Every structure is written in structure tokens, then in C-alpha cells.
Automatic annotation (TrEMBL):
GO biological process, one term: metaphase/anaphase transition of mitotic cell cycle
UniProt keyword annotation of Disulfide bond present: no
Residue ranges of every copy of the Anaphase-promoting complex subunit 1 middle domain listed in the record: 1-108, 154-221
Quaternary structure note: The mammalian APC/C is composed at least of 14 distinct subunits ANAPC1, ANAPC2, CDC27/APC3, ANAPC4, ANAPC5, CDC16/APC6, ANAPC7, CDC23/APC8, ANAPC10, ANAPC11, CDC26/APC12, ANAPC13, ANAPC15 and ANAPC16 that assemble into a complex of at least 19 chains with a combined molecular mass of around 1.2 MDa; APC/C interacts with FZR1 and FBXO5.
Domain Anaphase-promoting complex subunit 1 C-terminal: 968-1109
GO cellular component: anaphase-promoting complex
Protein name from the UniProt record: Anaphase-promoting complex subunit 1
A molecular function GO annotation: molecular adaptor activity
Chain's role: Component of the anaphase promoting complex/cyclosome (APC/C), a cell cycle-regulated E3 ubiquitin ligase that controls progression through mitosis and the G1 phase of the cell cycle. The APC/C complex acts by mediating ubiquitination and subsequent degradation of target proteins: it mainly mediates the formation of 'Lys-11'-linked polyubiquitin chains and, to a lower extent, the formation of 'Lys-48'- and 'Lys-63'-linked polyubiquitin chains. The APC/C complex catalyzes assembly of branched 'Lys-11'-/'Lys-48'-linked branched ubiquitin chains on target proteins.
Species lineage: Eukaryota, Metazoa, Chordata, Craniata, Vertebrata
Keywords: Cell cycle, Cell division, Mitosis, Phosphoprotein, Repeat, Ubl conjugation pathway
Source species, domain of life: Eukaryota
Biased composition (Polar residues): 234-243
Organism expressing this protein natively: Ursus americanus (American black bear)
Length: 1158
């Protein structure tokens, strides 16, 4: 007896009969140790059996267990269990066998019939209970709650949300794709279907494990990258060290050419920009030697020409710093390479060297000081904020030669702007400042202040206060601080206290705007830059506070600033330094009157920054341009530019991107009496000063254009671009007009430079071709009024246009507007050492307004940048409703606070929705968006029109022969080694291998990204039929059909033509068996009679497929006396038997020999 061998039990009675006459009623010894536990053992083994059925790898274990379970079920008189095992493994269960009756005299602890697992939810529950047996105690309640919620919320929750909940829950309990591979395909298919539909539209904030489960490696890598500490971006260029050739040593060899080639793929504009901004090579000096020129005069002529060209060369580093912004990750063991500032020339045709050090002409002293400083800043700004550098590396870069100190000073300032100067030890800062090198002090003070923006850091405050006499106690020792260092320290105070409205700081800065000259010989030169710095610093401290300056009402800040702007008697100097100012200046005699030429710019911009975006019309009216000729004579024309700019920044919401709005800022008297610069004869009038009117007109227009640039900075607004481009072209026309001398070439050049900067601000980072053409045209102008300052403005515009190599753009936040006002102040230096009106170091503060906005799709499989179609949804504003726009990435995004969501769409890549309300830190960090190419698709770079994709070829060819493809074709669409090997070995044309069919199957799977669907096995047991039945039930379920109706555009997980064919094939096979004598077996089974063992398998298949109830269920419904199919249908309703099965059983039950097959 099988039980004897398994449980080591001995029967009390051993029959001596022959094998064919075994007794059916043997009794085991009930006194043995395990006898009382036989029912429990059976039930445990039954549960093990059910668990093993859910693992396709345990087939042999199941077969070895079936015989024992059948024997135990017969001994325990559990015929339903025997029938259950028979239906699963008909070839392993004999119709008759030895029985040892086990009677315990009490009720069995388990149900008399095994549960019917035809329901999908029951299958899932059993699988979960068995699979997670080790954690069942703590998770049982949760699993039950999950199943209950699934059943209850079937009608209240969308199917997609149920699929998401299932996938997320499986991830939480540790379910992986490896576990899914072991499930039978009928049970795995609903789970795969949920995974497939979650893959279509996943949430961007799902954990990494969920993304891996649904096969979205792009999302998992995005989640992984977001959780890692900031490091080198995938977009960073990897340039090997030691590749310093003469051609590459221009400071721009670290740019990511791959990304820029995707952004600007149609032309060579990047190479053109690099050529315009390089300063490492000698310039070409073209001078014609006329007969009347001697050789010495010709040499002087070439050197004078070189001196003109050097004005342009020295202005290039600022623009180059913008172009290469944050593009380089330095090697900690190597010094930062700083490109050479080459001020030599080559004269054709012999290519002879022209040098300014020959002594033939007078060269301004210290001409290259600030140019070297800017060159150092540009080199330092290449360092990305996420770079791993420390104090030792900063000190390591200190040059050994004194002539390179200016470059190192700029390098220190750049480290502050990109946030690295906070790593410099305090002792090193002290050492640098005690050296007394002016440039180093300027760069260090501005750098540490920018690094501590808005923090009110006391250590930095003390450091800055040492360099500002107004912040020192009256009894402190007077230090000989250079004027430019004081200017830098004042701006540094504004940066450290930005937006804080700190009363004491604001009070001191307000007084410093109108600081009188003196005492004695102090504060007599370059006062304008100090006053401007105090005004800018005051504006930053009270940035955007408007009339809400708490605790400052007694200072009368706006009234005091207005007086600084329009003039009047100087007020009593309050504060601890009033005694100092009793000693008059020995050089300047101003008396008690405010010198508005000194104080007006700073006061005007301070008002603009304090009331920025407040739309305060009472303050804005103070800044309106004078509307009478008499009042116009009291205001310098360039101050009208600042007033117009300040007024428009206050009335932020009134700025409109059209020419009509720009012209509306011009007073009526100027509009009515403006002259056309193309006129030959000028009108004569004693009451009107045409020169004043003309200059006021162009400066007001330039101020309105500049405000337009601030308002739409980084937006690429087409209306603003067209408006500004029109005015830029107008100013270029005015420069060559007959009456240009009335306005003055210098004024026109200034206004043109301002408009060009405005245009570059709007198109920042976009590399717009029309703006590039303007910059390139102005780059070539080197004579006439084109001085160092204009070259500086033009190349700053060029740098803004390609900010960070197209990766960065400008923000319009209050802090950014303040930084841009400092950097783009519309008064440009006359020569390279000019700091009278504006400290040149402040030109680099644009970095504080730059923000990364380039969104670059990166293919997660190749880790290479690529093209992808995006749908950007804008939030609704007062100017427009919520709207959507399609963009081809890589692209510059608008400011992220204006966007609601970003969606990757299109047939080529898997869809991805980024909800920006949940955070934008990753996009702000490096702008990388990982995308995953759909199967059968090629990238936009390889297939711009989409004509070469595998899916397109499939649709175009309908016949199966054409759908077969060569094995090497699939390598273009997948890198999966398993698929490549499958195509290599099974899709090659061989004899009798059916490679066409196999190729079609692989092609179908690859084009729908469903690599694992139904297994292909020989049907030796009914378990495979069970799985097919579950698949048919799932795909015909109402929930699945509703999902297909709600999402018709979603791809089907399985070909809709395949399952009906499978169902029809099975139906025909079983019907043919039924008609060929199978009805006799079915009748014998239902009657409890014996039947031929050769028919065991087919009978079990029929019973399983048609859900035929067991014979002992039939008497309970009273089949006797049934004469019609309607009666049978009513009686079988409680057994939940399908109608299609009942149609096949009806002839047997009613005695009709003809089956009622549909």
C-alpha cells in the first residue's frame, strides 16, 4: 500500500488474495503515532500541491505528490478531492485502486470539497497566500483587505488605477519579474496585463522598484539619479586631459558637442560662435601700405590698427564665460586651464607678427588688467556647481608669477558665483586680503558675497565692513582701502542682505548714495560708481518690498531717493559719521546741493528694485519722462533711459511686447517734434532743441526695450523678439542716416547695444540665428565709435544668446532681475580700465540670474542624448488660459513655475508624465529626462520621418511572407541578448523549421513590447488547459472590455485575432471527440460508472474546459423528469455551469442522441 511506504504504517490485516482481488476496506492501526494526524497531513500536502501548481518549475514534484494525495483522499473517503486530482492529472489517477479506510470518528478539520479556483481573484489570493507563506502572519490581514477592496471597488475605481495598485502592492511585498516567470501563464497573464498597462502611462514619482517591475528602466534610472548626491551629469563633456593643442586651447574645448549638435543640427553656428569668442590666437591685422607711407609709419599704422582690434579682444572673455558657463568638471589633481589672452597680431601676406610692446606707439598703462580679470572669471565659470573641489585645490591653482594675479582674482570671483568659494578656508581668505592686491580683494569680496546670497552671514558681514568706512565705528583705525574695493564691498553687502530689509544696512546704504566728497582728498574720483553701487545694494536689501518696509517709515526711503534723483538741498547727514563730513573736500566744491549727475543712477535703480513688480503707480509717476522742453533740459538723456527702465519694472504687468507699447513711453512733445534721421534739411526752431529731443527719444526707446528684455527674459517670446529685432534694425539704420550727428553716433551706439542686449535676454540660450547675425555684424565693426565698452556689450549679447552652450536661460525672479541690473547696467566703459560709472566686475553677476532649463532626453539603453517629442502644458494666467504646446526636445523649457506638466508623447518613446506640482528639483539640477524607445522604433536622428521603423514595415506588408524578416534586422530595435540569440537560431531559413511562423511571432512580440505571453508546451496534463481557460475568461471579462473601450489608442497586450482562433480550435477538437464516442465516457462519468482508461485524458479535458460539475452534484438539483433544455438551464443555474457546456451535456441528460453544439 502506498500509504505504508510513505507514512511507515502497518496494516492490521494482510489479505492473501491475488493482486486483482485486493480488499477495498483494509483498516490501519489507529494506535500508531501519526495516525491521528493523517487528515491534517493530507490537508497540508494538499496545500503544498496547490502551491506547487503555481510554480512551473515544480512539475516533477507535483507528479510525485499526486499519487500519495489520491491514495489519502480515497482512504479518507474524499471523492471530491480524488476528482479534483483526476481533472488535473488524468494519466496519474487510476479509476480504481487499493483503499484503507481511515475513520477517526470525528469531523474533519477541512472542507469536504476543494475550493474551485476558476475565479481570477481566488487564484491571485491562493498564489499570494502560498507564495508569501513565510510572511503570512504579518501580511494576511493586509492581503485580505487588498482582495476585499478589489472586489468592492470594482465599479467605483477605474481599471487602470486597480492595475496601478496591484503593481505597487506587489513591489511592496517583494514581487519581482523572476517570480513572475515561474507562474503559469494563465495566472501570470492578468498580472502582465496590469504591468503592460501601467507601463503605458506611469506616474513620474513611482519608486525605482515599481519602474523596474513594469519594464520602465527610464523611470527607474530617473528615480535612482534623483536620489543620488549631485555629481557629474550625464550631459557633461568628457574631454581627456593633456589634449592641449594650439587649435583647442581657446577655453571652449570642454563643451558638450553632442548635445549642441542635437540643438543646432542644421548649421555650424556653434563653430561660428567659438570663432567669434576665442581670444587665444593672434588677430589678423589688415593694413594697406599706401605709397606716401614710410616703413616706420606703416609699422605704426599696423600697431594702431592692432590696438583697435585689441579693444575687441579684451572684451571677449565676458562673452566666452557666458558661452562656457558650468560646462566643465575639473580634475582635482590638475590645475584649471586658463586660455591665453593673446594681444598680438599677424599681418598678411607674410604673416609677420605685430606686437604692442615695440614702443612705436603709446599704449595705455595697465590696459590688460581688467581683461585678464575677466579672462580668469570666464575660466572659473566653466566649473560646474556639482564639481568636487576643495580648499586645497583652490589654493593649488594660485599662480607663481605676479603677472597672472589678475586672472587668479577673477578665478576666485567665479568660484564664489558658482558656489565653491564657501569651501575656501577662512585662513586662506585672510591671507589673500592681507596681500593688498586690489583685483584679488575685489574678486574675493564679490565672490564670498555671492556665495552667501541673502543669508545675512555675520562672518561675511564683518569681512565686508572692514572695507566700507561707513560701517566701521567712529573710533576705528582708518584703512587705506582702494576705491574699487569699497565699491565691491558695498555691492557685497547688498548681496549678503538681499531681500532682508535690514534697517541698519538700508540706512547706511541710503546715506552712501549721497555721500559728499571728502574729507580732504578722499572720495574725489569715480564717485559715480560708488553711488551706483550703494543704490544697487539698497535696492537688493529692500528688493520687492515696496511700501511694506517695516520699521523704516522714519527713514522716508522713497522720498530720499526721489531727492537724489531730481536734486535739491542736501539733508542733514545722520549717523555716526556726521563729524567726518564737516571737513570739506579740497578738490570738489558742491556745497549743500545734491549732485544728481552722481546720485541719480543709483537712486533711480534703487527705487526700481524696491518697488519691483509692485505696480505702484504713484512711485512710477515720479519716473515718468518730462513732458515739456523746459523740464527735459534738466535731465541728462542717458538718465531718461534709467527712468524709463525703472518705471516699467515697477509697472511690470503693464509691459506689452509690441512697438505700440514701446512708443507709448515717449512723451507727446517728443513724439510730435521728432525728426526723421533720413531728412537732409532740419527744421529750425528757437523753442525746441532738436538735439535734446532726438537724444531723449532714442534713450527712452532704448529704456523701454531694455524693460521688455527684463520682462520676457529667457522666454523666447515671439512678439517680444519681433518688436526688439525691429528696433535693433532701426538703430542700425539710424547709424548710417544723414542726420545721425544730431543724435550723436555715441548715443546711437549705446542705444543699439542696449537693444541688442535686450534681444539677447529674450532669446537667452536659444542661439537664435537672426540675433547671431546681428552680433556677428557688430563683431566686425572695429573703427569709429566702437570702443571697448560697445564690444563688451555686443559679445555679452552673443554670450547670453548661447548661455551655457544652450543649456541655460535667464530667470525673471526678483533676485534675477537685481543681478541682471548689476550686470547689464546700460552705461558701458569707454576703455578697458574705465570703472568710473560702473565697476566692471559686476558684469559677471548675470550668473545669479542663470538657471538650467534645457531638457535633454537621454535614451536609457544607450545612455546617449536623443530627440523626443514633448507636450508642455502651461498654467493659466491673467493673459492666457491653460494651453498645450508640442516641442521637440532637446529644448529650452519656459520658467518651470509657469508649467503644469511635461509629457513625453509620440509613438516612438514610452509615454511619461511629469507633474511639476510635485517638485522640479531634478529638472533644475541637470535637465536630463531618461526615455525608453519602444520596440520596433528608431530614434528621430536615425529615422526623421518614421518610414524605417519595424512597425511601419509590418503595417505596409500584409502577407505573412513579407512580415518575416532577416535575423540581423532585429538588432536595430533591441539589444536583448536572448532575443538576438533567438532570432539567430530560430529565424534562419532552414528546412522544415517553420522559420516564417517563428519570425512572425518574434516580430509581433517585438513590435508590441510583449516578449512573454503564452508558453508553448505539449498538453500532457489539463493544467495547460486550465491556463488557456483563464486567459479566455480574462480577455472576455467586462472589465477588460471596458478598458479597451476607454483607452482605444492603447496597444493590445495580445493580438485580438489569436484567442478566438485558440478557442475555436479547442471547441472543435472536443466536439469531434464527443461525437466520436466521447459522449459514452461522459455519460459513464456522470452516472458513476467505469469507463475506458484510454479516454481518461480527453474526458478530463472536456470536464475542465466546460466546467462540468462532479456526479454527486447532479442529484442535488433534481434532474429526473427534465424534458427540455429550458428546465436544465434553470436547474444548472445554481451550479454556475456555462451555457455552452450545458448545450453539449443536454443530449446526454435528456436522452437526445444529437448534441446541441453551437
Amino acid at each position: 500500500h502506498l500509504l505504508n511506504r510513505s507514512l511507515c504504517l502497518s496494516p492490521l490485516e494482510v489479505s492473501q488474495m491475488k493482486d486483482e482481488d485486493f480488499s477495498q476496506n483494509l483498516i490501519l492501526d489507529s494506535s500508531t503515532l501519526l495516525f491521528t494526524h493523517i487528515p491534517a497531513i493530507f490537508f497540508v500536502l494538499h496545500l503544498v500541491y496547490e502551491e506547487l501548481k503555481l510554480n512551473t518549475l515544480m512539475g516533477e514534484g507535483i507528479r510525485s505528490l499526486v499519487g500519495l494525495l489520491v491514495q489519502l483522499a480515497r482512504d479518507l473517503k474524499l471523492e471530491p478531492y480524488v476528482d479534483h486530482y483526476y481533472r488535473d492529472y488524468p494519466t496519474l489517477v487510476r479509476t480504481a485502486g487499493q483503499v484503507c479506510t481511515i475513520d477517526q470518528g470525528k469531523s474533519i478539520i477541512f472542507t469536504s470539497e476543494p475550493n474551485n479556483c476558476s475565479s481570477g481573484s481566488m487564484l491571485l489570493l491562493i498564489f499570494l497566500l502560498n507564495f508569501y507563506f513565510k510572511i503570512i502572519q504579518k501580511n494576511l490581514l493586509f492581503i485580505c483587505d487588498f482582495v476585499n477592496q478589489t472586489n468592492v471597488s470594482h465599479h467605483s475605481t477605474s481599471v487602470s488605477s486597480l492595475a496601478e495598485r496591484l503593481v505597487v502592492w506587489m513591489t511592496n511585498v517583494g514581487f519581482t519579474l523572476r517570480d513572475l516567470e515561474t507562474l503559469p501563464f494563465g495566472i501570470a497573464l492578468p498580472i502582465r496585463d496590469a504591468i503592460y498597462h501601467c507601463r503605458e502611462q506611469p506616474a513620474s514619482d513611482w519608486p525605482e522598484a515599481v519602474c523596474l517591475l513594469i519594464g520602465r528602466q527610464d523611470l527607474s534610472k530617473q528615480a535612482c539619479e534623483g536620489n543620488l548626491p549631485k555629481g557629474k551629469s550625464v550631459l557633461s563633456s568628457d574631454v581627456p586631459s593633456g589634449t592641449e593643442t594650439e587649435e583647442e586651447d581657446d577655453g571652449m574645448n570642454d563643451m558638450n558637442q553632442e548635445v549642441m549638435s542635437l540643438i543646432w543640427s542644421e548649421d555650424l553656428r556653434v563653430q561660428d560662435v567659438r570663432r567669434l569668442l576665442q581670444s587665444a590666437h593672434p588677430v589678423r591685422v589688415n593694413v594697406v601700405q599706401y605709397p606716401e607711407l614710410s616703413d616706420h609709419e606703416f609699422i605704426e599704422e599696423k600697431e594702431n590698427r592692432l590696438l583697435q582690434l585689441c579693444q575687441r579682444t579684451m572684451a571677449l572673455p565676458v562673452g566666452r564665460g557666458m558661452f562656457t558657463l558650468f560646462s566643465y568638471h575639473p580634475v582635482p589633481t590638475e590645475p584649471l586651464p586658463i586660455p591665453k589672452l593673446n594681444l598680438t597680431g599677424r599681418a598678411p601676406p607674410r604673416n609677420t607678427t605685430v606686437d604692442l610692446n615695440s614702443g612705436n606707439i603709446d599704449v595705455p598703462p595697465n590696459m590688460t588688467s581688467w581683461a585678464s580679470f575677466h579672462n580668469g572669471v570666464a575660466a572659473g565659470l566653466k566649473i560646474a556647481p556639482a564639481s568636487q573641489i576643495d580648499s586645497a585645490w583652490i589654493v593649488y591653482n594660485k599662480p607663481k608669477h605676479a603677472e597672472l594675479a589678475n586672472e587668479y582674482a577673477g578665478f576666485l570671483m567665479a568660484l564664489g558665483l558658482n558656489g565653491h568659494l564657501t569651501k575656501l578656508a577662512t585662513l586662506n581668505i585672510h591671507d589673500y586680503l592681507t596681500k593688498g592686491h586690489e583685483m584679488t580683494s575685489i574678486g574675493l569680496l564679490l565672490g564670498v558675497s555671492a556665495a552667501k546670497l541673502g543669508t545675512m552671514d555675520m562672518s561675511i558681514t564683518r569681512l565686508l565692513s572692514i572695507h566700507i568706512p561707513a560701517l566701521l565705528p567712529p573710533t576705528s583705525t582708518e584703512l587705506d582701502v582702494p576705491h574699487n574695493v569699497q565699491v565691491a564691498a558695498v555691492v557685497g553687502i547688498g548681496l549678503v542682505y538681499q531681500g532682508t530689509a535690514h534697517r541698519h544696512t538700508a540706512e547706511v546704504l541710503l546715506a552712501e548714495i549721497g555721500r559728499p566728497p571728502g574729507p580732504e582728498m578722499e572720495y574725489c574720483t569715480d564717485r559715480e560708481s560708488y553711488s551706483l553701487a550703494a543704490g544697487l545694494a539698497l535696492g537688493m536689501v529692500c528688493l520687492g518690498h515696496g511700501s511694506n518696509l517695516i520699521g523704516m517709515s522714519d527713514l522716508n526711503v522713497p522720498e530720499q531717493l526721489y531727492q537724489y534723483m531730481v536734486g535739491g538741498h542736501r539733508r542733514f547727514q545722520a549717523g555716526m559719521h556726521r563729524e567726518k563730513h564737516k571737513s570739506p573736500s579740497y578738490q570738489i566744491k558742491e556745497g549743500d546741493t545734491i549732485n544728481v549727475d552722481v546720485t541719480c543712477p543709483g537712486a533711480t535703480l534703487a527705487l526700481a528694485m524696491i518697488y519691483l513688480k509692485t505696480n505702484n503707480r504713484s512711485i512710477a509717476d515720479w519716473l515718468r519722462a518730462p513732458d515739456t522742453m523746459y523740464l527735459l533740459d534738466f535731465v541728462k538723456p542717458e538718465f531718461l533711459l534709467l527712468r524709463t527702465l525703472a518705471r516699467c519694472l515697477i509697472l511690470w504687468d503693464d509691459i506689452l511686447p509690441n512697438s505700440k507699447w514701446v512708443d507709448s513711453n515717449v512723451p507727446q512733445i517728443i513724439r510730435e517734434n521728432s525728426i526723421s534721421l533720413s531728412e537732409i534739411e532740419l527744421p529750425c526752431s528757437e523753442d525746441l532743441n532738436l538735439e535734446t529731443l532726438s537724444q531723449a527719444h532714442v534713450y527712452i526707446i532704448a529704456g523701454a526695450c531694455l524693460s521688455l528684455g527684463f520682462r520676457f527674459a529667457g522666454s523666447e517670446n515671439l512678439s517680444a523678439f519681433n518688436c526688439l529685432h525691429k528696433f535693433a534694425k532701426d538703430f542700425m539704420t539710424y547709424l548710417s542716416a544723414p542726420n545721425a550727428s544730431v543724435t550723436g553716433p555715441y548715443n546711437l551706439e549705446t542705444c543699439l547695444s542696449v537693444v541688442l542686449l535686450s534681444l539677447a535676454m529674450v532669446m537667452a540660450g536659444s542661439g537664435n540665428l537672426k540675433v547671431l547675425q546681428l552680433c556677428r555684424f557688430l563683431h566686425m565693426k572695429t573703427g569709429g565709435e566702437m570702443n571697448y565698452g560697445f564690444h563688451l556689450a555686443h559679445h555679452m549679447a552673443l554670450g547670453l544668446l548661447f548661455l551655457g552652450g544652450g543649456r541655460y536661460s535667464l530667470s525673471t525672479s526678483n533676485s534675477s532681475i537685481a543681478a541682471l541690473l548689476c550686470a547689464l547696467y546700460p552705461h558701458f566703459p569707454a576703455h578697458s580700465t574705465d570703472n568710473r560709472y560702473h565697476l566692471q566686475a559686476l558684469r559677471h553677476l548675470y550668473v545669479l540670474a542663470a538657471e538650467p532649463r534645457l531638457l535633454v532626453p537621454v535614451d536609457v539603453d544607450t545612455n546617449m542624448p536623443c530627440y523626443a517629442l514633448l507636450e508642455v502644458t502651461y498654467k493659466g494666467t491673467q493673459w492666457y488660459e491653460q494651453t498645450k504646446e508640442e516641442l521637440m526636445a532637446p529644448t529650452l523649457l519656459p520658467e518651470l513655475h509657469l508649467l503644469k506638466q511635461i509629457k513625453v508623447k509620440g509613438p516612438r518613446y514610452w509615454e511619461l508624465l511629469i507633474d511639476l506640482s510635485k517638485g522640479t528639483q531634478h529638472l533644475k539640477y541637470d535637465g536630463v529626462l531618461y526615455v525608453k524607445l519602444r520596440a520596433g522604433q528608431l530614434s528621430y536622428k536615425e529615422d526623421p520621418m518614421g518610414w524605417q521603423s519595424l512597425l511601419a514595415q509590418t503595417v505596409a506588408n500584409r502577407n505573412s511572407e513579407a512580415r518575416a524578416f532577416k535575423p540581423e534586422t532585429i538588432s536595430a530595435f533591441t539589444s536583448d541578448p536572448a532575443l538576438l540569440s533567438f532570432a539567430e537560431y530560430f529565424c534562419k531559413p532552414t528546412v522544415n523549421m517553420g522559420q516564417v511562423c517563428v519570425s512572425y511571432v518574434l516580430l509581433s512580440c517585438q513590435t508590441t513590447m510583449a516578449m512573454r505571453r503564452l508558453g508553448r508546451r505539449e498538453m500532457s496534463e489539463t493544467s495547460e488547459l486550465w491556463q488557456i481557460k483563464l486567459v479566455l475568461e480574462f480577455f472576455s471579462s467586462r472589465s477588460h472590455q471596458e478598458r479597451l473601450q476607454n483607452h482605444p489608442k492603447r496597444g493590445l497586450f495580445m493580438n485580438s485575432e489569436f484567442l478566438p482562433v485558440v478557442k475555436c480550435t479547442i471547441d472543435n477538437t472536443l466536439d469531434q471527440w464527443l461525437q466520436a464516442g466521447g459522449d459514452v465516457c461522459v455519460h459513464a462519468y456522470l452516472s458513476g460508472q467505469l469507463f475506458e482508461e484510454s479516454q481518461l485524458s480527453m474526458l478530463a479535458c472536456f470536464l475542465v474546459y466546460h466546467s462540468v460539475p462532479a456526479p454527486w452534484h447532479l442529484p442535488s438539483i433534481g434532474l429526473e423528469g427534465s424534458t427540455s433544455f429550458a428546465e436544465l438551464l434553470f436547474k444548472f443555474k445554481q451550479l454556475k455551469m456555462p451555457v455552452r457546456a450545458l448545450l453539449r451535456l443536454a443530449p446526454l441528460l435528456l436522452g437526445n442522441p444529437q448534441p446541441m453544439v453551437m
